[in-house]
Amino acid sequence: MSLHSTPILYLNMGGEMLYVLRQRLKAQRVDVDKTIQVLDDVTAALLNPKILTSIFEESPMVGIPQLRSTLECVALSSIMKLDKSSMNKLFDLMIMMVKYQLTAATGPREVILITLNHIDAMRDMVSDVNAQKCVTLVHQMIVDFYGCLTFDDVWSARQSCLKELEPYNIRVSILLRRGLQNEDASFNMTPHKYNEKYTEHGNSLAIMKLRDVSPETCCGGSFGTFGDRKTLLGKNIYLPTYGMTDNTNPQRDSQQFLKDCGAKAELSMLAVQLGTEETSYERPFTLNLLSNEDEENANNVDNDVDAQGNRVKRSDSKPKVNDDYKAKLDVYANLFEDEHEGLKRSMDLLDLLDEVE
């Protein structure tokens, strides 16, 4: 079994989780302030330094059940609530989308480019500057970690991931609609623009390191922070612009959405600072992943009212349940890491994060 598989599964599944949450938040017309908070909080939890240093250790792959436990805590670390049915649906989508992308990958470089597409989307989703710098740091960790591996090492990591995902065969409506999946849950491997043809050229590339081979040798695809990945795999399939020609900007919808959200958030913050708006705590809301219909009471604010009819903040401020989920993330990190090297790398990454704040 490969010792380099866990980051691929964790980051790609985490990226798909953010795609689904963003799509549902928008479809259910959740308040933009709450949307920004959820995307920022979930991304920050997903990129928890202790978790990252653990999954980037060279160690046997972490199984799906343990990854799910960690990612459930990530999903519930913000003000959002998901019931059991919605959580199951969320993980079905995450697992099958990652399984499809890894199955469709045409070579080791594309496996890394798929992961970087998810990281690019995280950078576009978050509005907090420090969170964006953290995403950039994770991008560099991916390039450093996998750039030192041979083509065969990365391809073996992909094979290990697919073996772990093999028991999961679920029909996903969006894949069915796009003709990428059959009714028996198998995938249609339709040709796409990027094609490394690794099965044909693997003998000459197998023992070479990814960083030592020119991108043009493998159909291009940049590992740079803002480079062109070339491959469509790993991008947000829920966007209306997904799969359009190069003359369009696949990230336009996402960028405009965050621009609108960020503008409103800044205006709200300015109003608070000027004393023209009273701050109040809003309770967690429920996100329904199974329907486009909003529940009328899902997003209600639960504030007390004083004798003059003014809102006052409740004393039971932040819900304990979400603090508990955040605390569990550190516990799950301990299940991954090595006693000595893991601690050393954790401290190094924490120092880097301190520098960007």
Automatic annotation (TrEMBL):
<protein>
    <submittedName>
        <fullName>Protein OSCP1</fullName>
    </submittedName>
</protein>
<dbReference type="InterPro" id="IPR019332">
    <property type="entry name" value="OSCP1"/>
</dbReference>
<dbReference type="Pfam" id="PF10188">
    <property type="entry name" value="Oscp1"/>
</dbReference>
<feature type="region of interest" description="Disordered">
    <location>
        <begin position="293"/>
        <end position="320"/>
    </location>
</feature>
<dbReference type="GO" id="GO:0005886">
    <property type="term" value="C:plasma membrane"/>
</dbReference>
<dbReference type="GO" id="GO:0005737">
    <property type="term" value="C:cytoplasm"/>
</dbReference>
